[in-house]
Amino acid sequence: MKKIRVAIAGLGRLGRVHAENLAFRIPNAELCAVCAQTEDSLNWARERLDICACYQDFAEMLAKETPDAVVLVTPSDLHCEQIELALDAGVHVFFEKPLGTDPARCAATQAAAEQHPELVCMPGFMRRYDKSYVYAKHQIDSGAIGTPYMMKCTGIDPESAIEGTLRVTGSFGGIFMDLGIHDVDLMRWLLGCEPAQVHAVGTTVKYPAFREGGDYETAAALYQFTNGAIGMAHAGRCSPYGYHVETEIIGTEGTLRISGVPAKNLTQLYKGNGAATECVGSFQERFEEAYLAEVQEFVDCVCENRRPAVTMEDAVKATVIAHAAGQALRSGEIIKL
Amino acid sequence: MKKIRVAIAGLGRLGRVHAENLAFRIPNAELCAVCAQTEDSLNWARERLDICACYQDFAEMLAKETPDAVVLVTPSDLHCEQIELALDAGVHVFFEKPLGTDPARCAATQAAAEQHPELVCMPGFMRRYDKSYVYAKHQIDSGAIGTPYMMKCTGIDPESAIEGTLRVTGSFGGIFMDLGIHDVDLMRWLLGCEPAQVHAVGTTVKYPAFREGGDYETAAALYQFTNGAIGMAHAGRCSPYGYHVETEIIGTEGTLRISGVPAKNLTQLYKGNGAATECVGSFQERFEEAYLAEVQEFVDCVCENRRPAVTMEDAVKATVIAHAAGQALRSGEIIKL
Amino acid sequence: MKKIRVAIAGLGRLGRVHAENLAFRIPNAELCAVCAQTEDSLNWARERLDICACYQDFAEMLAKETPDAVVLVTPSDLHCEQIELALDAGVHVFFEKPLGTDPARCAATQAAAEQHPELVCMPGFMRRYDKSYVYAKHQIDSGAIGTPYMMKCTGIDPESAIEGTLRVTGSFGGIFMDLGIHDVDLMRWLLGCEPAQVHAVGTTVKYPAFREGGDYETAAALYQFTNGAIGMAHAGRCSPYGYHVETEIIGTEGTLRISGVPAKNLTQLYKGNGAATECVGSFQERFEEAYLAEVQEFVDCVCENRRPAVTMEDAVKATVIAHAAGQALRSGEIIKL
Amino acid sequence: MKKIRVAIAGLGRLGRVHAENLAFRIPNAELCAVCAQTEDSLNWARERLDICACYQDFAEMLAKETPDAVVLVTPSDLHCEQIELALDAGVHVFFEKPLGTDPARCAATQAAAEQHPELVCMPGFMRRYDKSYVYAKHQIDSGAIGTPYMMKCTGIDPESAIEGTLRVTGSFGGIFMDLGIHDVDLMRWLLGCEPAQVHAVGTTVKYPAFREGGDYETAAALYQFTNGAIGMAHAGRCSPYGYHVETEIIGTEGTLRISGVPAKNLTQLYKGNGAATECVGSFQERFEEAYLAEVQEFVDCVCENRRPAVTMEDAVKATVIAHAAGQALRSGEIIKL
Questions:
Q1: Per CB distance under 8 Å, which residues of A are interface residues toward B?
Q2: How far is it, in rounded angstroms, from Cα D43 to Cα C233?
Q3: For residue C158, what is the nearest residue in chain D, using CA coordinates?
């Protein structure tokens, strides 16, 4: 079995998920080096992953370790530059969404990637690798719902994680760029079409800090696609019952709904309040398998010299659209795309 | 429209449900008289139903009011005698389950009914008139599940009604006669076959009064039918989450499950404990429509000189089988039927 | 028991539901007369309801029968005039939604009603009388979900009724006036606030006749309320799986979802395609009990000289808002209210 | 990180699952050798797992490879002997259920294991490592359902696998030993008590070959435990809709139900037949994660010199009880334990 050497940059919550997967669960990858800002994170890697090659400088890691591939789980505003550095060093790249928050900057990185057709450069839209979404995509492709003409998307972070969310409010390009971008990617992927316009409204009810940070606690966008299809997207920050990602794809012959109840597992508890299904508590819990599957696919693509189904163009378009949704939200206008 | 004059005997909880239905919701019936033990109940009828013809003696009511039909919601041990009185008076009869608790006594009443083929004599197995069960029966008859070969039945009274349940423990022939008889009727109806044997076990965990009353808080019976089909029936007295009646019919091509969650209505509440569906609180709530539908069918049968699908034989056989299940429970033996 | 004499005008599909309820299921009402356009409908009333007082002229019926109350299930564009006629004749009025399709005309009728404070004039928003919605309202009022700040509404007519739907496309003020007005009423009722603006988009995929009729097969509206609350409403005409009305109310402490699966009954069928719950087939099936409950409440209000919780102001505001949503849909603009 | 060398014996369907997990997904294990009957299986191991150490003789593998541990996925009637061989060779053992089909033989192996307290000897009841069952156990232990007093268990193999099932009918000790033993283990684990008696009935409707093989297509057992608790267990061979394992634990304060719908994933498809959830197709699909988790726990126990929560006593008792259920089924008697 061919095995590649993979480095990782970024060891926050999601970075550690990816790092453990690379170290332990992806047989054709060897985690060869890590890069992180804090000694704390690097110590975690030394102890938990038994990694000696620990860096605080990304370029230095690339130069000294010459990995085959790198996985970027760094802050969004570093992605474009780091991707370009890696490509220039001849290193395959997997990067977490979003590619960036500035559409023009993203386009430049896409151009850079096109200069390196020999390298895999894969965006991390993990939902595309979640078994429920894979199943839905397959159902759509096999005609189970006829022609899809509408989607309804919900993404609500758990209130239990509100402190972390509030700490970064204002960064990451706002609620549609940070959270809603997943739904943008899903709509493009499952409707097979591009949005023509977007209108959005938002509100902040429970945590005024969102308002103070120039963002919204809850936002809703209404999209129309070039073929007339309709998209309704709801992004929120403080679900009291867990992490709620739900998606509905409506077609002429049927409707697919994914995760109407974001069930933690297959157990129902019948008590005084009725028959209850506990909900997943976090994005890590909900997409645990998908985070593994997407990086496995990345590594397989590198090993087999394939290209993943999700492309740099997907990454750029998602950023452009999420950016427009943010503009719509702040301006109160209908933004044409 | 032909309209018949109907009297009712018994104004307990269920009696009042039937009385109100007869008075207000069955257009081709006129509630003409009531019979009850207590002044309290009779006053309720006078005020709520505007009925003047109030009796404490059943035979007197029949003699003086000469109704076309009578609905019996009296204690089980009075049914056989009252049915015979009514039939002798030329009055059609609807009676609540069970026909009686003594198989021999029931057979005598069945013989009496056979002497009056001109009269409708209909047992009150309301589940047969519930829209979910009607739907399931239709699915089975249309072949949706192939050949049914197994049933699993659950009937658990709500703990919220435990005081009333405890007051009558020891009467009514025990848990299988009082509660489990509904499942006996469902199994005969939906499997289209008779049981050949039954074994049962019971336990009492929370309310020792059941043990003291010679009964069980919870009991389970395992039936085998003459065609080999299997029946599993669970009867209980103290569900902490509401009134739970659930039925599963398993066939060679599919399975029907009725009321896996005994939902109060179509609402789900997503809160800290998950996504919860509140459960129905009582038999009256669960079978509100069925109680109306069964008596409507009775009245229609009288008006149209039809015979209902549910027969005296069904009533007698259900008693015989529930009686055997009770024997099995008390003796620890396998009882052959 | 006080009993009132009620006439009905309009014997289409829903009219017949109301007529049967008045004739058979509302004990304190006596159906005294009917008015309909066609001999067919009048014959139905004669045979099925045993009614002799049959009219084709509404004013004539009022004059000759002098009913206590009238129930209007006539075409929307007749409501305002008929209401005014009835009020002038001293007759209580229940009318089906919408009050009308022209906001100014509706306001005049509201003014007329205010001239008759002694008369009940009740709009027919039956969802407010459906037990699931009543339950949700009660949960909200009791604080179960904290402060509601968002609603998502879905209303899709069944494709099985498409022929009837297509016959009247273009009438009734378009999809938001005909169908979406229910969601407008629900949002006002459950959020306790008025919308400040609305934007909408629509599409027609399967039945071009909608486009030709100047309407849309599917439309989606995004509302923002004066308190910042957000409303997302989806109205459609051709659900392949039945009649789908779903409502979600999102609050700071929890979320209520009504009818995520518009279950026909409590049965699940496990077959090759999985575990399936059949859906209700029509508005009559879904809201059978609510249609009865709302007219029962109307009759009770008349008998007890009470006023219903739903008011003429609710009827007028719903029309104004649905009208604005229609304008938004046709213009592509954001309409301020 | 400490890493152990693990050999595997048996490369059937489940054996390959375990082999891949050991090779790729358990970081502290190194798959060092395989033993299988057929060249086909050994070739699969060479190609898929890149393993050179391939054997057809179990004792030879132990002698030549001296692994730290061995995983047995061989036919049930070989388990006892192979376990003893491994223990004698100083090798830790994980074995698939059942330990054996003969209670006396199992007891001898348990005694052998007790001679080697320094070695881990762990039975493979994977459900104990499934996240839904782990969650349920945690709920019970934390008091969520009060005192559990009843369990209802369902295990039905998919009809899609019927050919394989029929090939081995008659081996493996019958339906309760092969399939029902999982439910026996669950009942002991979750009720915390031992059964006192069992009665069982069976039927064969669709595949007469079961009857010819001396087994049953469907069987149901009714257990009573020493503390009075009740167990109802249903085992079947030909579910038309997938692999259905469902478990209900009923307690004085609530009820836990696991997998009322054995959902394949979180997607619902709304079509003509209603809202449907596709079911899992096989035990491998349903328990994919649990199979990994149980062997991970085994390897961790070896590495950390811990003992797993599931013991040899559990394995022996499960065999004794499943054996008694089989006796009950064949004899028609109530078997005391």
A1: 240-242, 244, 261, 263-264, 268-279
A2: 59
A3: D272
Q: For C206, which residue in chain A has the nearest alpha carbon?
A: A252
Return the residue of D nearest to C264 by Cα. Answer: D274
Largest CA distance in chain D: 62
Query: Where residue B144 falls among pLDDT bands split at 50, 70, 90?
Result: very high
Question: What is the per-residue pLDDT across C76-98, written as a single tens digit (0 to 9) for each?
Answer: 999 999 999 999 999 999 999 99
User: How close does chain C come to D104, measured CA to CA in Å?
Assistant: 41
Whether the CB-CB separation of C183 and C217 falls below 8 Å is answered with: no
**What's the DSSP call for residue B278?**
P
Q: What value does the mean pLDDT take over residues B2-25?
A: 96
Pairing type for strands C92-96 and C69-72 reads: parallel
Cis peptide leading into B98, omega within 30 of 0?
Answer: yes
Domain ranges of chain C: 4-125+296-305, 128-289+318-336
Mean pLDDT of B281-297: 97
Give residue A45's pLDDT: 97
Task: Count chain A–chain D contacts defined by CB atoms under 8 A.
Answer: 90
ipTM rounded to 2 decimals: 0.95
Neighbours of chain D (3+ CB pairs under 8 A): A, B, C
Beta bridge partners of C124: C96
Q: Which residue in C135, C256, C270 is closest to B257 by CB distance?
A: C270
Q: What's the CA gap between C223 and C235, in Å, rounded?
A: 14
C266, C272, C275: residue with CB nearest B263:
C266
CA–CA distance, A124 with A109 (Å, rounded to integer): 15
CA angle D204, D222, D202 (to 5 degrees): 10
**Which alpha helices (H) appear in B89-207, and where do they start and end?**
103-114, 131-141, 162-167, 175, 181-191
* Average of per-residue pLDDT values in chain A: 96
Report the gap between the CA of A59 and the closest CA in chain C (Å).
Answer: 45
Write the CATH number of the domain with boundaries D128-289+318-336. Answer: 3.30.360.10
Residues of D with CB below 8 A from A253's CB? 271
| Among the listed residues D197, A61, A64, A63, the one whose alpha carbon sits nearest the alpha carbon of residue A72 | A61
Torsion of CA A27, A32, A38, A44, to 10 degrees: 50
3-state secondary structure of A107: helix
Tell me the β-bridge partners of B35.
B9, B55
Please give the single-letter amino acid code of residue C324. Answer: A
Amino acid at D92: H
Given a contact cutoff of 8 angstroms between Cβ atoms, the answer to whether D196 and D224 are in contact is yes
pLDDT for residue C171 is more than 80: no
User: With the CA atoms of D251, D254, D260 and D264 taken in that order, what torsion angle do they form, in degrees rounded to the nearest 10?
Assistant: -110
Q: Which residue of A has its CA nearest to C273?
A: A144
Number of neighbours of residue C143 by Cβ within 10 angstroms? 11
User: How far away is chain D from the Cα of C320, in angstroms, using its nearest Cα?
Assistant: 34
Strand partners, D122: D94
Q: Rounded CA gap, C153 and C235, in Å?
A: 8
Chain C positions with Cβ closer than 8 Å to B = 1, 23-25, 27, 50, 131-132, 135-136, 139, 144-145, 253-260, 262-272, 275, 278
C197 sits in the region (left: phi over 0; alpha: psi -120 to 50; else beta) called: beta
Residue C213 three-state SS: coil
Q: Do D264 and C272 touch (CB under 8 A)?
A: no
Q: Tokens 């002429």 identify what position?
A: A252
Please tell me the distance in Å from A257's CA to the nearest CA on chain C: 10
Rounded Cα distance, C153 and C148, in Å: 14
Q: Which amino acid is at D230?
A: I
Residues in chain B within 8 Å Cβ distance of D221: 222
CATH topology of domain C4-125+296-305: Rossmann fold (3.40.50)
User: Residue ranges of chain D with pLDDT lower than 50?
Assistant: none
A332 DSSP assignment: -
